[in-house]
Design brief:
About 50% of the residues lie in helices and about 10% in strands. The protein is built from 27 helices and 20 strands. The strands form seven sheets. The protein has a five-stranded mixed sheet, with helices on both faces. A four-stranded mixed sheet has the order 18-17-19-20, with helices on both faces. Strand 6 and strand 7 form a beta hairpin. It is globular, with a radius of gyration of 26 Å.
């Protein structure tokens, strides 16, 4: 059964409106007034779709009708397939309209709804995905959940539950109550905490257990399908540096190499697809999501700092170029996704036929085909090829009696020719929502690239994205989850505040501009006020309309928003000497110790914070008129477990108190309120780091 697993100039999806502007539609439903590209795709289905809104839920209650809830997103291949097979079908629509209140949801606009019903789906089937198609009681409790269905399967499901609800409503309600209780239990948090005295043992134990599932040949975790998982690789890289653990560092490098060489990476145009449909990273699921590319820029840039692997630098720059060219709006925000489908075919924009390659590349074809595995046994089941390689460029060049420079020039020639040819194809549509949390992740990625490569282009772009979000996704009183021209979405979630505060703090750290720190602190305090929960964690949303309160702890495709909150409390707590923040961070972290110990691969962001407890955490404070250039030089070193902050002037921030001397620039290194004497040169600073026993030395 198919599903999108849960785990010229490009045109945004508004082009769909342009293509259909002059058409006369036989059917129009309530989605026509929405701004979401995904919902607009369904606005002319014969199904009487409605958006998730109080009036739709009220209708279900008043008429005592079951609800069909269908959740997807605009770039999801199997969502398109089910629309074409079922939701555009008159017979299916008649069955749905007669017996159900039908609600469509864009999971990118309402991740809270998606999480609740994905949880229910996983409880009954073991895994989730999109499209998610659920049947709910009028009060929202689920009675059935599934993903993609053929027309016949879907009609059978509809008929069965419509009949059951009419003939045996008590039985249906009893089952729905039990399933809802299971969903509510899933979000229950542990009431007892273990403390953090054994942090090092907990992390080491977690990594040892996780390592049993590492794919030692192809990288990543063993399995028939593979997601990259940047959060866990980020943590493992830090652990490898702190422990000088070659096996940990090797697994990170192997994974990133195989991903960058595989078909999950677009070798022609740059950027990453969502996941691999095989264990070898060869054949992707063809959506390109902003959140994946944002996090992968960050981990590749960070890994380059440690490993100096030239492939990683190439990937960062090429992905940066792809994002700017294909997914950026003119004012600085980045769109959410590119469709998997083109011209009605999954991957149609990216798959190559031999004849096309021969025609475009001419005499360059044989070498291209050898490097990118264009051979009969690699042909996709549906025909065509996705370029991937099993050799680093330098090794391939040596094997073919070419210098690295000669081979790189050939690659550039191939890529330019194929990009030009590919532009003649129908482009995948783009979902032009600008999602706050995903753009904040991109800012983090660009900040890391700036720190690694000392290239102003990354910092400039990070600041432009931040400025866009502050202008369009923030009204001075609250953030919005997403922005779209002429859109009216008002939802906001913990991830928006947490990720945005983190990106503001990151910009402060590299620019030393206090206004960024002010924004970070303001957003953190707003998040604490809005989403506080008696559990000790923070709720995902402020909404009380769902069947359960959502408190997310593990990482998903995004880092855990609660883990980011705990990291912010830890870091700002150190900067302000705020004992309350530091204690709150510890309290939150202590609730995740069992998760880190047993399933660290799902708790990577938490484990990154636990490393601060497991190993000495150093404060590097630079104060004086040359602080910016000194910090830029320090950034050349791959320090883990350090807070690096600076100020050009006298500051009332606690960490700078009494440290500014006019005409001087001092570097202070401290651990647990114990500081060395200030120094003025990088060599003396490095000696101090070594004297503290920092593992980089």
């Amino acid at each position: 059964m198919g599903s999108c697993k849960n785990g010229g100039e490009s045109k945004p999806s508004s082009q769909l409106d342009g293509e259909t502007a002059n058409r006369v539609f036989e059917f129009t439903n309530d989605l026509v007034d929405e701004s979401s590209p995904y919902l607009l795709q369904h606005a002319h289905n014969p199904v009487d779709w409605r958006p998730w809104a109080p009036d739709a839920l009220d209708t279900a209650q008043k008429t005592d009708q079951l609800i069909v809830l269908s959740i997807g997103y605009s770039s999801c291949h199997w969502c398109h397939v089910m629309e074409e097979e079922s939701f555009e079908d008159i017979e299916v629509a008649a069955l749905m309209n007669e017996n159900f209140v039908n609600i469509k949801v864009d999971r990118e606009e309402r991740p809270d709804l998606d999480q609740v019903y994905q949880t229910a789906l996983k409880l009954v089937s073991g895994n989730g995905g999109w499209p998610l198609n659920a049947i709910l009681l009028p009060d929202g409790k689920p009675v059935y959940l599934g993903t993609y269905h053929t027309k016949e399967e879907w009609m059978a499901v509809l008929s069965k539950f419509s009949s059951e609800y009419k003939n045996n409503p008590d039985k249906i309600k009893e089952y729905a109550a039990l399933l809802t209780e299971g969903v509510q239990d899933f979000y229950e948090l542990p009431t007892s905490t273990k403390g953090l005295t054994d942090s090092r043992v907990i992390v080491e134990s977690g990594i040892a257990k996780w390592s049993n599932s590492w794919d030692k040949t192809w990288g990543g975790d063993t399995g028939n399908q593979k997601f990259v998982g940047p959060a866990k690789l980020n943590m493992l890289l830090d652990y490898g540096v702190l422990e000088n653990d070659e096996s940990a560092e090797h697994h990170v490098e192997l994974t990133l190499e195989k991903v960058a060489m595989g078909g999950i990476y677009d070798h022609i145009g740059g950027g990453f697809f969502r996941y691999s449909t095989d264990p070898y990273w060869k054949t992707p699921h063809f959506e390109k999501m902003l959140y994946d590319n944002a996090q992968l820029i960050q981990i590749y840039a960070k890994a380059y700092q440690v490993m100096s692997n030239p492939l990683f630098k190439d990937v960062v720059y090429k992905t940066f170029g792809f994002l700017k060219d294909e997914m950026r709006n003119p004012n600085g925000g980045y769109y959410s996704s590119m469709d998997a489908d083109s011209n009605g075919k999954e991957g149609g924009y990216y798959i190559w036929q031999k004849d096309d390659l021969r025609s475009v590349l001419q005499e360059g074809y044989p070498l291209f085909a050898e490097y990118f595995n264009i051979k009969d046994e690699e042909e996709l089941q549906e025909g065509g090829f996705v370029p991937y390689t099993t050799m680093q460029g330098s090794a391939f060049a040596d094997a073919n009696d070419l210098s690295a420079e000669e081979f790189n020039k050939k690659k550039e020639t191939w890529e330019k020719a194929l990009v030009s040819h590919r532009e003649s194809r129908k482009r995948p549509s783009i979902d032009d929502k600008v999602i706050t949390s995903w753009n904040a992740l991109l800012i983090d990625g660009y900040i890391q690239a700036y720190r690694t490569f000392d290239d102003q282009v990354f910092l400039t772009e990070a600041q432009k994205v931040f400025d866009f979000l502050m202008s369009h996704n923030y009204d001075g009183k609250r953030l919005l989850h997403s922005f779209k021209e002429e859109g009216s979405r008002q939802e906001v979630f913990l991830e928006d505040y947490a990720f945005m505060a983190k990106s503001a703090l990151g910009l402060y750290e590299v620019t030393l501009k206090p206004n960024y720190l002010d924004v970070a602190k303001r957003l953190l305090n707003m998040a604490m006020a809005r989403f506080t929960d008696e559990s000790g964690m923070y709720a995902y949303s402020e909404s009380d309309e769902l069947i359960t309160k959502i408190i997310n702890i593990p990482d998903g495709v995004l880092p855990s928003a609660n883990a980011i909150m705990a990291q912010l409390l830890f870091k700002i707590g150190h900067m302000e000497y705020n004992k309350g923040f530091l204690q709150k961070s510890d309290d939150m972290l202590s609730m995740t110790t069992n998760g880190i110990n047993e399933n660290i691969e799902f708790y990577g962001t938490w484990a990154s914070l636990m490393l601060h407890k497991a190993y000495p955490y150093l404060e590097i404070v630079v104060v004086g008129e040359n602080a910016a250039s000194v910090i830029s030089e320090i950034d050349n070193y791959p320090f883990s477990n350090t807070l690096l902050v600076g100020s050009l002037t006298e500051s009332d921030l606690s960490i700078f108190d009494g440290r500014y001397v006019e005409g001087e620039t001092f570097i202070y290194v401290c651990e647990n309120k114990t500081c060395k004497l200030p120094v003025t040169t990088i060599p003396d600073f490095l000696k101090q780091m070594a004297s503290f026993g920092h593992p980089s030395f």
